[in-house]
């Protein structure tokens, strides 16, 4: 079975950036094949990977609610459409949830995505799940057993406290991660004592292990603005050594 790594955290902290950097690391270390799943309805992981998405799981689910072609079972049709939705690249595939098909449809769309992942899981060594803000969507996806829950925060007191609260939701939601880690993204080169103290307080009270601090990188932001793939980052990109040290230490 593949090792499942899921991202969590409040909006705007860089979960998608961390997912792209983690995929960069796995490919460099030849820990492949990988299934990257963009489970956020506002999908943009493909943009950081330089890929075009033609078909989403939300669209597949909508098609399956209509009439199927003759002489094909629902399972056969689902398998065909899911493989059409997979964007294949070197060493990994990308699967995008996209928008659900109407108000109130997020639960069923997430469950359909979970069913799709179950169908594909045996083909991969790692599955990376980039999620929307919060934790409830992991429960809706029936993603109960996770090898690593990576809770991402920005370097603010509110972000770090929110990360602690998010980590505390795993038990009430019935989610059982093998490991829960806090990763502080866009950290200053010399963190202030107050930030370090807040991180220590949160990790001790929430059961989160500190994965590490990813430094703020102006060149990484410029790379994104230019629409270039994070998989093509140059070796001298300052954030890469820190990312590789963190991922090499915490990955299952």
UniProtKB/TrEMBL annotation:
GO terms for molecular function: ATP binding; ATP hydrolysis activity. GO terms for cellular component: cytoplasmic side of plasma membrane; cytosol. It holds the Pfam family CbiA. It comes from the Bacteria. Residues 4-227 form the CobQ/CobB/MinD/ParA nucleotide binding domain. InterPro entries: CobQ/CobB/MinD/ParA_Nub-bd_dom (IPR002586), CooC (IPR014433), P-loop_NTPase (IPR027417), ParA/MinD_ATPase (IPR050625). One of its GO terms (biological process) is negative regulation of cell division. This is Cobyrinic acid ac-diamide synthase. It comes from Desulfurivibrio alkaliphilus (strain DSM 19089 / UNIQEM U267 / AHT2).
